[in-house]
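Hi R.,

As promised on Friday, here is the backbone we talked about, encoded as C-alpha cells. Could you run it through your design pipeline when you get a chance and send me back a sequence?
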C-alpha cells in the first residue's frame, strides 16, 4: 500500500493489496509448509483484511509520509552488534522522525504498557545511533482492538535502554561461560522450537547441536 502515492491509499486500495499479497504466497515454500486447505486460506485472508480495516480506524495513510518500510538497522555497541527491523519510519509534519510498529494482537493492560513499548524505544535508540537523530515519538498500532500506544523517547529512556542491553548481554555471556541455562517454563513453551530438548519436558540438551555464541542481539 505504501507504494501508492498519498491520496491513493484508500481502504479499497488497502484491501486490494491484501488480496495481492495472499496471491503472491502461492508457491511459497514456508506458506505451503503450513498445509492450509482452501477454507483455512480463506480465513487467513479474511483475518488479514479485518486487520487492515482496523488500521484505517487508527490513522489516515494518505496523511502519513513513510520514508522506510521494514527498515533494517545495525549498531555496534562495544563488542556487541545490535540489529533491528523497523516496521515503518515516518517524517511528521514538523520534519521529525516517527517510529511505527504494527501488532496484530490485542493491546496490553495499562500495567504492561511500558514493557511492550520497550521494543520501539530500542528502535529509537538505533535511529539515533545510525541517523544522528532521535525520533520525536514511537508508536505501537494494535490492530486487534484497534488502539495506538504512543511514547516520547527521552535522554533517560535511551540511557536506560543502553544499560539494560549491556546488562542482558553480560548475563548471556556469563551463562555461556558457566553453561548455566535455567529453564523458565511459561505458556510460551508451547511455541518453543527447543521444547523437545528441554529438561523440563524430559528432553536432553546433549542431543542439540549448538554452535559458538554470536555476539549479536536482534529485536
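Update: got your reply. Pasting your designed sequence below so it's all in one thread:
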Amino acid at each position: 500500500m505504501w507504494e501508492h502515492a498519498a491520496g491513493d491509499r484508500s481502504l479499497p486500495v488497502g484491501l486490494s493489496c491484501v488480496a495481492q499479497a495472499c496471491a503472491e504466497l502461492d508457491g511459497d515454500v514456508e506458506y505451503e509448509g503450513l498445509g492450509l486447505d482452501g477454507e483455512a486460506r480463506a480465513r487467513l485472508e479474511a483475518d488479514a483484511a479485518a486487520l487492515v480495516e482496523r488500521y484505517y480506524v487508527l490513522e489516515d495513510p494518505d496523511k502519513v509520509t513513510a520514508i522506510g518500510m521494514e527498515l533494517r538497522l545495525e549498531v555496534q555497541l562495544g563488542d556487541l552488534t545490535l540489529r533491528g527491523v523497523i516496521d515503518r519510519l515516518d517524517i511528521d509534519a514538523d520534519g521529525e522522525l516517527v517510529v511505527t510498529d504494527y501488532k496484530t494482537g490485542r493491546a496490553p493492560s495499562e500495567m504492561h504498557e511500558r514493557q511492550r513499548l520497550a521494543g520501539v524505544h530500542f528502535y529509537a535508540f538505533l535511529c539515533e545511533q545510525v541517523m544522528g537523530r532521535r525520533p520525536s515519538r514511537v508508536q505501537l498500532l494494535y490492530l486487534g482492538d484497534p488502539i495506538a500506544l504512543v511514547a516520547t523517547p527521552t535522554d533517560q529512556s535511551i540511557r536506560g535502554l543502553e544499560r539494560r542491553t549491556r546488562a542482558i548481554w553480560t548475563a548471556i555471556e556469563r551463562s555461556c561461560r558457566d553453561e548455566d541455562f535455567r529453564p523458565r517454563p511459561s505458556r510460551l513453551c508451547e511455541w518453543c522450537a527447543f521444547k523437545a530438548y528441554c529438561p523440563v519436558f524430559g528432553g536432553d540438551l546433549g542431543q542439540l547441536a549448538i554452535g559458538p555464541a554470536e555476539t549479536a542481539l536482534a529485536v
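One thing I noticed while checking it: The longest helix spans residues 155-178.

Thanks again,
M.
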